[in-house]
Specification:
Keywords: Membrane, Transmembrane, Transmembrane helix. The chain is built from two helices and no strands. It is an all-alpha fold.
């Protein structure tokens, strides 16, 4: 399987989305004292994931 740039952007988008979801869930479920920081960082990862997804086919 050849990995072209669209495949790489797709995997990068998927993995950053997973990291963002994990951060939000950690903040909500485990570390309630730091939930705001974890959630803001997780939402930042969601935005980075969205940018990687938007770059597919354009670079």
């Amino acid at each position: 399987m050849a990995m072209n740039k669209n495949t790489i952007f797709g995997w990068a988008s998927f993995l950053t989305f997973l990291v963002g979801a994990a951060l939000v869930l950690l903040g909500v479920l485990k570390y309630r004292d730091y939930a705001i920081g974890f959630s803001v960082t997780g939402i930042g990862f969601f935005f980075i994931s969205w940018v990687f997804n938007a770059l597919k086919g354009r670079v």
